[in-house]
Amino acid sequence: xxxxxxxxxxxxxxxxxxxxxxxxxxxxxxxxxxxxxxxxxxxxxxxxxxxxxxxxxxxxxxxxxxxxxxxxxxxxxxxxxxxxxxxxxxxxxxxxxxxxxxxxxxxxxxxxxxxxxxxxxxxxxxx
Length: 127
Prior knowledge:
127 residues, mainly beta, four-stranded antiparallel β-sheet, 2 helices, 8 strands, 9% helix, globular
């Protein structure tokens, strides 16, 4: 099964465990496109302090084994208009090939829309 989530600046996904599937031994594969976001991966309880990872467009996360049963969430999405930078001084934003109207000359509105958010596709086996 697939699940598509769209996040804009200011959106978040609270910490949760994906445990609705009958067989939690099967992994979840998650692919991100668009604006960068902070992904938090905690432990089996909310008492475990989470580890933060900056996900950029094209990054994938696999929750398998122990991590499949851990709390995770997405507290922050970054768009170019915020002017936030990473440790190397690069502006946190969707890549130009996805969000530059000059690249998407036939669909500039699509590029502007992508510049303001991120798409996450999660794939899992629900049988």
